[in-house]
Design brief:
Helices cover about 40% and strands about 10% of the residues. With about 375 residues, the chain is of the alpha/beta class. The strands form two sheets. An eight-stranded parallel beta sheet has the order 3-4-5-6-7-8-9-10. Strands 1-2 form a two-stranded antiparallel ribbon. α4 crosses α5 and α6 runs parallel beside α8. This is NAD(P)-linked oxidoreductase superfamily protein. One of its GO terms (molecular function) is oxidoreductase activity.
């Protein structure tokens, strides 16, 4: 979910003009059907999505993911992630207008997702998918009209007449009340089925909830950084407020950008910007936790990734959205559903994670 604002502003300039959406298809038409019992409602809205979603931040991105390169091989892999997710009933896909900066060889994530939907409709006749995207609260955007304008441009790139969830990606430096009004307008105009926010503190969350409630519109979700090793939403009141108000917490970076998968070690840390957070020193501190995750996973015939995603789901009122770069990752994510850790295992992992110490979050979390 989160983003690096540097490098994305220029790419957004190309999309500032209000383009009319082309209604290629509704984002809720059926194909491989997700069973109703495998779905949950987004907050107080009528929108139902899979209990685990897929994040599309890396699709087309060259500013944070993909070793700063995008090519046909990665495009094919992303398409495989999309198709496999839907085949396995993970029908909730999260993107944003700023995902996929327009740097050499890159392509906007929304554009890719729209292409994947159209291709699947052509291949299978229909496509059951619930799309969430986001509005970037950039400094030059003012008022409710800017939200509607950006939404229509997103719909054009996606090739859809509406989306299931539209979110404010982060709080604006100013003008937040106007942005919330814009979300309400989008619902009333039928351009979205539900609205949410992202990276909102408890106070901002409550204010947005109250403002929308006056119009009879539920605030469906708050998308925040949340994982076994990054539990700020539990500490800053956001998780409790979501539970109290009936707002779904959508967890981005639920596997700590890969650090909880067991793939990385002190001798083999992640590359790129992630390496500045998950350093050899931090990965050394994480080893006791990772070892215990692996042991628990073996008892269930599950991977580290499946264990930590299940841990989040067990917190209740949480939809994790791990990023899938390929079909194999999407398939692995699906294996986090249909079973549950015990209460003892949940608390044991929480206790081990607490010994690691603080982990750096994203700048947008502090707005």
């Amino acid at each position: 979910m989160a983003l690096q604002v540097i490098g994305t502003g220029l790419s957004l300039l190309r999309y500032r003009r209000d383009l009319r959406p082309r209604a290629v298809a509704s984002s809720s038409e059926t194909s491989t059907t997700t069973r109703e019992e495998d779905k949950v409602k987004l907050g107080g809205s009528d929108v139902k999505v899979s209990k685990l979603g897929i994040g599309a931040w890396s699709w087309g991105d060259t500013t944070y993911w993909n070793d700063f390169q995008w090519d046909d091989r990665k495009l094919k892999a992303a398409k495989g992630a999309f198709d496999t997710s839907l085949d396995l009933g993970l029908n909730f896909i999260d993107t944003a207008e700023v995902y996929g900066a327009g740097i050499t060889g890159a392509i906007n994530s929304e554009t890719l997702l729209g292409r994947f939907i159209k291709e699947r409709q052509q291949e299978k006749g229909s496509c059951e998918v619930s799309i969430a995207t986001k509005f970037a609260a950039l400094p030059w955007r003012f008022g409710r009209g800017s939200v509607l304008s950006a939404l229509k441009s997103s719909l054009s790139r996606l090739g859809l007449s509406s989306v299931d969830l539209y979110q404010l990606h982060w709080p604006g430096i100013w003008g937040n009340e106007g942005y919330i009004d814009g979300l309400g307008d989008a619902v009333e105009q039928g351009l979205v089925k539900a609205v949410g926010v992202s990276n909102y503190s408890e106070k901002r969350l409550r204010d947005a909830y109250t403002q929308l409630k006056k119009r009879g519109i539920p605030l469906a979700s708050n998308q925040v950084n949340y994982s076994l090793v990054y539990r700020n939403p539990e500490k800053n009141g956001v998780k409790a407020a979501c539970d109290e108000l009936g707002i779904t917490l959508i967890a981005y970076s639920p596997i700590a950008q890969g650090a909880l998968t067991g793939k990385y070690t002190p001798e083999n840390p992640p590359t790129g910007p992630r390496g500045r957070v998950y350093t050899p020193e931090l990965l050394t501190k994480m080893q006791p936790l990772l070892n215990r995750i692996k042991e628990i996973g073996q008892n269930y015939d599950k991977t580290n990734t499946q264990v930590v995603l299940n841990w989040l789901i067990c917190q209740g009122n949480v939809i994790p959205i791990p990023g899938a770069k390929n079909a194999e990752q999407a398939s692995e994510f699906a294996g986090s559903l249909g079973w549950s850790l015990t209460d003892t295992e949940i608390e044991e992992l929480r206790s081990l994670a607490s010994e690691i110490g603080p982990i750096i979050g994203f700048p947008v979390e502090r707005l």
